[in-house]
Amino acid sequence: MHLFPLNTCNFHPKQRTLAILLMLAAASLFTCLNLIIDLLESHFRIWDIGFYRFFGGLVLLFILSGRHHNPYRGNHTRLLLIRGICGSVAFLSLVSSIRLLPVSTALVHFYTFPAFAAIFSAVLFGERISRAALMCIAVVLIGISILFDFTLSANLLGQLLAINGAVFAGLTIVLIRRLKANNNAAIIYLYFCTLGLIVCLPMYLQSPVFPADGKEWLLCSGIVLTSLAAQLAMNQGFAYCRSWEGGLFMTSEAVFTAAAGIMLLGDPLSWRFLTGGVLILGSVVAMNFVKDHQQTQLAHAAGSSPAAGRPVASAASAKEPEDGTH
User: Fold this and answer.
1) What would the pLDDT profile of 22-72 be if each residue is shown by its tens digit?
2) Which of 191, 235, 257, 236 is nearest to 29 (CA)?
3) How many helices (H) and strands (E) does the chain have?
């Protein structure tokens, strides 16, 4: 018996297209967030960045919800809280690992989260994953390791933190998929901001860093706005795709980040970028093609079945056996 039963029927092609567009938009916005954080002066600690991100998000969400509406009124409050905790752990684990490892090594470990999402999807939702989809996930992981010039590090703690971040990120997107069934995108992010603020606030108050000039205020505002837009797009995208599929789409952030480094920061254009980018984005396209092929086969099978041309039974004759065996 699965812990959280969920309808896992195939999505309409238009819904999958919308999911891809939303996930790619979210990945692009997360890339902008990464660039903004990189532009902040080094005296901004992770707790400062987290505080401005989560506090600013809360303020905007409260404004958008209106004065006469309780923004915390949602369904499955316990899962909303768990999602907020898991997202906070993933965020802090990733940042902590980056401080202990080369950024490329930390990101390669972290971007394994679609594999963990696939595992959690099967355990919690009973979602079946085809061999072709598993191959797409494997190719994405290979592409990311090529893109970021992956090398093993001797810092075991840093690697464990990065993998821990990937595990909790995989669980987070699975929970988002479940919560999106009966919660809007904003309330899911609201609980994330609330739990993230609770985690970051004590460390922030010990030695708060305030924006010193207009540039830093602009960058902090950019963190708030890009985080809000990216999270809302991602949360909404999970209404139209499975959790592990959404995670696979989100790995395009790795390609966008590398491309931004080439175009904006003067990083060299290398074979690693071209090869890794083709493998990652090609796997996303291939997975979409596989889904189209599977749905076509299901449609042909349904159309050719003997029951396809039979009239629908009446409500009385279609009742399930009362002894529970079916």
Assistant:
1) 999 999 998 888 888 878 877 888 899 999 999 999 999 998 887 767 788
2) 257
3) 12, 0
Instruction: Judge whether 320 and 326 are in contact, CB under 8 Å.
Output: yes
For 8-22, how does the pLDDT look when each residue is reduced to its tens digit (9 = 90+)? 445 566 777 888 899
Domain of residue 142 covers 13-296
Contact 196, 87 (CB under 8 A): yes
Give Cα 163 to chain centroid, integer Å: 15
Question: How many residues in total does the chain contain?
Answer: 326
Q: Specify if 302 maps to a domain.
A: no
How far lies 154's CA from each of 1, 98, 110, 148, 159, in Å?
A: 41, 14, 17, 17, 9
In a domain, 119, yes or no: yes
DSSP letters along 213-264, please? SHHHHHHHHHHHHHHHHHHHHHHHHTTSS-HHHHHHHHTHHHHHHHHHHHHH
Give me 139's structure tokens: 């190719």
- Count how many domains the chain has: 1
Examine the pLDDT at 254 and tell me if it is beyond 90. Answer: no
The Cα–Cα gap between 103 and 95 comes to 10
* Residue 68: half-sphere exposure toward Cβ, Cα within 13 Å: 0
* CA-CA-CA-CA dihedral for 270, 274, 277, 280, to nearest 10: -120
Residue 283 counted as domain residue: yes
CB atoms within 10 A of CB 249: 25
The pLDDT tens digits of the residues spanning 190-223 come to 999 999 999 999 999 999 999 989 999 999 999 9
Provide mean pLDDT across the span 307-319: 43
Give the DSSP H/E element, type plus range, for residue 140: helix 131-147
User: Is residue 325 in some structural domain?
Assistant: no
Cβ density class 22-48: b for 16+ within 10 Å, e for less: bbbbbbbbbbbbbbbbeebeeebbbbb
